[in-house]
Amino acid sequence: MKKLALHWQILIGMTLGVLWGMLASSLGLVEFTLDWISPFGTIFINLLKLIAVPLVLVSLITGVTSLSDISRLSRIGSKTIALYLTTTVIAVVLGLVLVNAFEPGKAFSPEKREEFKQQFASTTSQKSTDAASVEQQGPLQPLIDIVPSNIFNSMTDNGSMLQVIFFALLFGISLILIPPDKAQPVNDFFEGVNMAILKIVDIIMMAAPYGVFALLGGLVVEFAGDDPSAALELLLVLGYYCLVVAIGLGLMIFVVYPVLVVTIGKTKYGHFLKGIFPAQMLAFSTSSSAATLPVTMECAEKNLGINKEISSFVLPLGATINMDGTSLYQSVAAVFIAQAYGIDLSLTAQLGIVMTATLASIGAAAVPGAGTVMLVIVLQQAGIPVEGIALILAPDRLLDMLRTTVNVTGDATVSMLVARTEGQLHPPTEITVK
């Protein structure tokens, strides 16, 4: 009997997880779910995070050294960053157009707004405190943060991925510049480590359906508590806002990316979607571009035919600096909150949101909820009450799952475009997924 493909296993695990969460809330099994099922979801996430830093470090070093000359590295790097910035700006502008057209913030009553403020007061305060520390930094602080003072400290923190990327690029470039006979043993070492890490990925992914089940089962239970109708009622109240964000994210996946894949990538979008689907499902369930990175790389290379030297450079970089979904969400959320407070934003203020959201997306960690902290900075820049973030915290986890899916799809899209322009795209005749 043919084994069920991984993405279908993950999809089944997600569905069963949601159903279990609703059932557990109805039958009073909340404590049981949180104590005995949810921890396995946490373990699964920890396993993915465990290999995130080693994978980025080793894959980037092997990717850079495989380019073999500095001029080629410079050309590919310039293309990659230019494409990432372009898709991010498109996402932010699209979000602003939609939120101004639909005006979801005007659907809130003052009573409901006050209720949200009180319910999420402590969380809002924590987000504001986190963002304040970032806001007080100088204009060149992001540049300072990229250069680590101790690479070993950076490798112990998944939030310091930019520093790991900086070191990996510097190390890889240095290997290109030293005599080939001296560099070859080091290259062989990292190639072997890379193979071992990818094998670890295969082992971890065997548990993916079960990890996703536990993850979503625990999430639904935490959201609903002992009253499943509470979750439904809350989602209905904020449904309009969620719909606007979802429409924007859907347009990115089904309009913006297809145009790029078909025109520049010279590839049928159905083929592209089928190839990247397992990574999309994992991104949806984990809400982490970094945690999904191993699967994204595997899909790009095996299913889409993207050369390894391109995928190992473009995708790790994208998981850190390319957050199209997060940027779109931030622009919609900022104007939504302004509308809820009755604030009319000028064109200048909204252009400021474009700039701030684009730059904030570069600094956002590729982990669940990081975009919410960066949103506070966007709100402060536009003069929107930070307290209004309480309005969107309830459905944020669901939207985080959706926007992470867009983030990962955007990374794969740019990777394909770079590969095509470099003559490094060789689509397989048949897509196979483990």
Give an account of the 3D structure.
With 434 residues, this protein is mainly alpha-helical. It has one domain: Proton glutamate symport protein (Orthogonal Bundle), CATH 1.10.3860. It contains 20 helices and no strands. Helix 4 crosses helix 18 and helix 17 packs across helix 19. The longest helix has 33 residues. It is globular. The two termini are 15 Å apart. The C terminus is likely disordered. This is Dicarboxylate/amino acid:cation symporter. One of its GO terms (cellular component) is plasma membrane. InterPro entries: DAACS, Na-dicarboxylate_symporter, Na-dicarboxylate_symporter_CS, Na:dicarbo_symporter_sf.
**What's the story with the biggest beta sheet?**
none
The first-level CATH class name: Mainly Alpha
**Helix and strand run:** HHHHHHHHHHHHHHHHHHHH
Alpha-carbon distance between the two ends: 15 Å
Mean pLDDT: 81
Radius of gyration: 22 Å
- How many β-strand stretches? 0
The proportion of strand residues reads under 5%
Name the poorly predicted regions.
429-434
Level of helix content?
over 70%
CATH architecture: Orthogonal Bundle
Structural class from helices and strands?
A: mainly alpha
Count of runs of 4 or more consecutive helical residues = 20
C-alpha geometry: globular
